[in-house]
Design the sequence.
């Protein structure tokens, strides 16, 4: 087993890289992959950069060049559900795009539907979801939630935009990489899960809250990812 771990920003992966042992770094297509052991588990950690294309590229490289068997996406997200507060965790049951819109060519293409694909949302691996949920509950009991993650190349920071995404996807949180990672992992038949900590409420307060809570939320999420690696290593 080898775990591929992807975070968009340095703050989302720095703590993980620091706690890795037997590290070797390798650059592929401009991204630095740090391979070693995380809590005893063979792992490769990469900062992919923001957005869907950066994220998908790193999943493909993890599959092609590093032979990972499982993929975890760790990072922060905006909350789409009133029950989720800043610092809470969302574990993906599924992930989908909120900015894939082709209904003008065929009404069957609802928001999120990629023409030609048999799924609207990409299902996370049930075993990884269980492990991530249990890891999140061990880090912060009672603050982990399982549900849909909605991704797009947009930082969501107003109520109207937020409401539209809720109506289109029913997601618990929004961010900018999860569905692309899910899509690419799904096509490679590699099990994945997205783990996100809430940094803001994806509304008019997001521009203030995000810079304030980004680092705290990202570190908590990395803690969950580390706990999950430990659980996998101990299995
Ligand atoms: N990541 C963290 N907060 C976000 C937001 N409000 N929109 C998109 N990505 C995010």
Sequence:
């Amino acid at each position: 087993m080898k775990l591929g771990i992807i975070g968009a920003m340095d703050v989302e992966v720095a703590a993980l890289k620091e706690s890795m042992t037997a590290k070797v770094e390798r650059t592929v297509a401009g991204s630095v992959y740090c391979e070693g052991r995380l809590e005893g588990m063979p792992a490769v950690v990469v900062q992919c950069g923001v957005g869907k294309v950066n994220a998908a590229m790193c999943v493909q490289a993890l599959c092609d060049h590093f032979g990972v068997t499982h993929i975890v996406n760790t990072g922060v997200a905006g909350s789409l559900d009133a029950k989720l507060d800043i610092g809470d965790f969302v574990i993906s049951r599924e992930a989908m795009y909120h900015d894939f819109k082709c209904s003008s060519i065929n009404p069957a293409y609802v928001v999120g539907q990629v023409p030609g694909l048999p799924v609207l949302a990409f299902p996370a691996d049930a075993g990884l979801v269980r492990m991530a949920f249990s890891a999140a509950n061990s880090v912060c009991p009672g603050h982990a939630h399982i549900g849909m993650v909605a991704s797009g190349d947009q930082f969501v920071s107003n109520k109207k935009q937020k409401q539209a995404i809720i109506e289109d996807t029913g997601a618990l949180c929004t961010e900018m990489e999860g569905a692309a990672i899910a899509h690419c992992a799904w096509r490679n038949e590699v099990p994945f899960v997205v783990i996100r900590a809430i940094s803001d409420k994806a509304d008019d307060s997001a521009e203030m809250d995000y810079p304030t809570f980004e680092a705290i939320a990202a570190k908590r999420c990395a803690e969950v990812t580390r706990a999950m690696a430990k659980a996998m290593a101990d299995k």
